[in-house]
Amino acid sequence: MAAQQGEIARANHPMPVASQPASFVPPTAASAAATTTTATATQVSADAGEKLFGSVCTTCHTAGLMGAPKLADKADWAPRIAQGKDTLYKHAIGGYQGKAGVMPAKGGSQASDEEVKAAVDYMVSKAS
């Protein structure tokens, strides 16, 4: 009986058939690179900077430990912002030791460079 019901269902609802056969096109190096770039860009969401700040950066940037500029403190951030984002990114990613203190590479985290840049952008946006 179940077999008959299955046959009736298939007869009443046949599987759709493509009008043209699908063809496989192997990816080229350029399309693979574009896919990788797109995947990387989408992996870092808009709020990735705030998330990294909340989990890692807040330790020093809330209390000003080791000379870290405090979040939203315009006076602390102004001379750093004046150096440009490329310098801020370089110091945050690679680490930096200056007169005021120490910035460990990536805040001592395993975050990606893009996540660290997003965290820098987040902190700068709060101090601007």
Give an overview of the whole structure.
- By secondary structure, this protein is mostly helical.
- The chain contains 6 helices and 2 strands.
- The chain has helices at 2-12, 29-43, 48-61, 74-82, 85-94, 113-127, and strands at residues 96-97, 102-103.
- The radius of gyration is 26 Å and the shape is globular.
- The chain starts with a helix and ends with a helix.
- Mean pLDDT is 80; it is low at 15-25 and 31-42.
How is the secondary structure organized here?
Blueprint: H1 2-12, H2 29-43, H3 48-61, H4 74-82, H5 85-94, E1 96-97, E2 102-103, H6 113-127
Antiparallel strand pairs: 1-2
Helix pairs in contact: 3-6, 5-6
Assigned CATH class of the domain at 45-127:
Mainly Alpha
Helix content class: 55-70%
- Let me know the CATH homologous superfamily of the domain at 45-127: Cytochrome c-like domain
Low-confidence blocks of residues: 15-25, 31-42
Q: How many DSSP H or I helices?
A: 6
The largest β sheet comes out as: 2 strands, antiparallel
CATH architecture of the domain at 45-127: Orthogonal Bundle
Mean pLDDT: 80
CATH fold title of the domain at 45-127: Cytochrome Bc1 Complex, Chain D, domain 2
Write the H/E string, N to C.
Answer: HHHHHEEH
Query: What integer value in Å does the Rg equal?
Result: 26 Å
- The strands making up the biggest β-sheet line up spatially as 1-2
Can you count the beta strands?
2
Q: What would you call the structural class?
A: mainly alpha
Strand portion, in percent? under 5%
What global shape is seen? globular
Give the termini distance in whole angstroms: 74 Å
